[in-house]
Amino acid sequence: MSLVALFYDSVEQGCQIGWPDPARQSILSNTRSPLQRKISNGFNYFEKKGIPTEKPLYPLVGNLWNFWKEVQFQRDAKNEKRFGKVWGSFEGSRPAWNIADPDLIRDICIKEFDHFTDRRVFFMKDKVLSKMLNVLKGHEWKDVRSAVSPVFSSGKIKKMSQLMESCGETLVQHLRKAMEESQGVVNVKEYLLLSLSVSLLPLLCQYGAYTLDVIATCAFGTKLDSLGEENDPFTKNARKFLVDNPIVGNPLIIIPFIFPWVMQLGLNIFPMEPINFFKDLVQDIMKQRKTKGHERGDALDAMMEQVEKEKEAGGEMVMTEEVITAQSLAFFVAGFDTTGSMINFLTYVLAVHPDVQDRLYQEIEEKIQEYGGTNHEMMNACAYLDQVVNETLRFYPIATRLERECTKDCIIDGMEFKKGDLICFPIYAVHHSLEYYPDPEVFDPDRFSPEKKSKIPQGAFLPFGIGPRNCIGMRFALEEGKLALCHLIHSFRILKCAETPVPLKFTPGVLMLMPDRTSPIRVKLESRI
Ligand code: HEM
User: Fold this and answer.
1) Cα separation, 159 vs 299, whole angstroms
2) 250: exposed, middle or buried (C-beta count within 10 Å: 0-12, 13-18, 19+)?
3) Tally of domains in the chain
4) 471 annotated to bind ligand
5) Is 5 among the domain residues?
6) Residue 59 Cα, ligand 1 centroid: separation in angstroms?
7) Ligand 1 pocket, mutate which of 346, 464, 469, 514 (most atoms under 8 A from CB)
8) CA 525 from chain center: how many Å?
9) Where heme is bound, by residue (predicted)?
10) pLDDT digits over 286-314, tens only?
11) Cα gap 275→38, rounded to integer Å
12) How much of the chain exceeds pLDDT 90, in percent?
């Protein structure tokens, strides 16, 4: 198929997902007109609505070219300065709204949620993966979300916190070893450059190992020390799933953005061998627990509890074995690297802001004394810890943008959204806006003090998203991150050294906030105990 024909197809795809009729007619009625004319017609979508537009440079790719060239959040910040709080761009041929206004973000994600229930996903052929919460759509998503929500209740998080505790201790042991081997300078989260790849992926190292151990114990009911037991089948398969995946980080991943229909050919983003390993593992553990009635207080227990409740209530079952397995995998996909990155950035800010570290150390030591160790209640009592974590997530939001798909036509604030429109919220630009955060480039945990926090508009702090489709694992991630930090601060003084990059540089071509391969986060650790 020629490139021109592919472009026509992708224009049609754009039309089906919600281009307005006049644009559609002018494009389709002139299918034999010169390519340039089609491009200018197709890319007029926002201009016709009076919305400023980031003009696409090339046919087919729209503004995706800029995605590869520039760091996403820097491009968003530049566009916000240039266009204001609402502007249009094109993901391939598909129109994408960019909205950096907290009131509008709140309206779309909460008030008018019924019109924006989904986010963009590429068709997933596998019958288990397609049931992961993050990719489900419409009613199916709603049913699974309400069935899975109790897994993350405060009571359940408290139980899982006890399981995480031993992973925190293992993390300290490994960091101590790494510190002794390298005269104190530790690359807390290493990066690996894949051949053919312009993006960088985390090795299962230090924080990666910690978050993997936590997922193994809380989502898969398996005790693990992934750095100590590199040949363990769980560690090996996790590595294949998350690190040695030939597709992630590969520039060819851009193809489904331009031609979403290619995924219907049966391509899967994830390699199947490790997926099958994890499916079998979850199913074996569930069988064992059913026969032996063994309980660990982990997420699998909580999901099986939900099954019993559904059985008692009668009616159609939502939590089938397939759905449960899919959620364990979803926790992996959504919770592994995000949480590792959060701990990585936390370590960095403490190294470059020793005054913040000293105050945090005082608080943690006081509360450890008071509560007899690091635990759920002790962490809840640490107000400054919460402020430091919030400010770190404001300064370095791991997911730099959120997405929604318009599922029903609607008009908000005079703007007409059509079914199929893609809506993007540039989190980084909002978090660094002078309007909501005075001196936004200053790291100041006191902006999240109880008095000041309440003045931040609801749609202006979005590290875990917003509304009914926000991050279901937020409390879990915060518990896991704070626990790691308490162990770290209690055991080590974190110091800036010659190898610590200031300021941080970031990687283009990825949606997550990732330090550049040439300047990974390195800090010096000094034992405190
Ligand atoms: C610091 C760590 C994390 C960050 C920054 C983060 C951030 C996010 C964000 C921004 C979203 C999209 C929300 C929206 O569209 O409004 C999301 C969704 C999600 N996250 Fe997290 N996340 C983290 C950790 C976790 C963990 C540990 C888990 C699981 C245990 C998890 C599970 C999920 C799932 C399943 C979704 C999809 C929810 C849905 O579509 O209903 N996340 N996360």
Assistant:
1) 10
2) middle
3) 1
4) yes
5) no
6) 33
7) 464
8) 28
9) 471
10) 888 888 776 788 999 999 999 999 999 99
11) 42
12) 51
The answer, yes or no, to whether residue 19 has pLDDT greater than 60, is: no
Place of tokens 């068709």: 123
The closest residue, in CA terms, to atom 7 on ligand 1 is 464
Partners of 412 in the beta sheet?
Answer: 415
With tokens 């996403």, the residue in question is 72
Quote the tokens at residue 14: 């754009």
Our measurement of the distance from residue 76's CA atom to the centroid of its chain's CA atoms, rounded to an integer in Å, reads 17
Classify residue 220: in a domain, yes or no. yes
Summarize pLDDT for 458-506 with one digit per residue, the tens.
Answer: 999 999 999 999 999 999 999 999 999 999 999 999 999 888 899 999 9
Ligand 1 centroid from CA 257, angstroms: 21
Q: Which domain holds residue 419?
A: 47-527
Alpha-carbon span 381 to 366, nearest angstrom: 10
Residue 184 has what pLDDT? 60
83 alpha carbon – ligand 1 mean position (Å):
29
pLDDT per residue as tens digits for the range 328-363: 989 988 888 899 899 999 999 999 999 999 999 999
| CA-nearest residue, atom 20 of ligand 1 | 471
Q: What digits encode the pLDDT tens for the residues 92-131?
A: 878 899 999 999 999 999 999 999 999 987 656 778 888 9
Burial of 338 (0-12, 13-18, 19+ CB in 10 A): buried
ipTM: 1.00
Residue 137 burial (CB count, 10 A): 15
Residue 42 domain-assigned? no
Long-range interactions of 19-28: CB distance < 8 A, separation 24+: 19/45, 19/95, 19/418, 20/45, 20/48, 20/418, 22/48, 23/48
- CA nearest to 347, candidates 465, 221, 186: 186
Candidate from 367-371, 389-393, 511-515 with smallest mean pLDDT: 511-515
Give, in order, the Cα–Cα distances in Å from 491 to each of 20, 169, 361. Answer: 60, 10, 10
pLDDT digits (tens, 9 = 90+) for 163-194: 999 999 998 988 888 777 776 666 655 533 32
Distance 471 CA to ligand 1 centre (A): 3
The answer for residues whose C-beta is within 8 angstroms of residue 11's C-beta and 6 or more apart is 27, 38, 42, 93
Output the CA torsion 289→294→295→298 (10° steps). -40
Instruction: Give the domain CATH number at 196.
Output: 1.10.630.10
What is the secondary structure of 183-234 as a DSSP string? TTEEESS-EEEPTT-SSEEE-S-THHHHHHHHHHHHHS-----TTT-TTSHH
Any domain includes 30: no
Cα gap 163→161, rounded to integer Å: 5
pLDDT of residue 185: 63
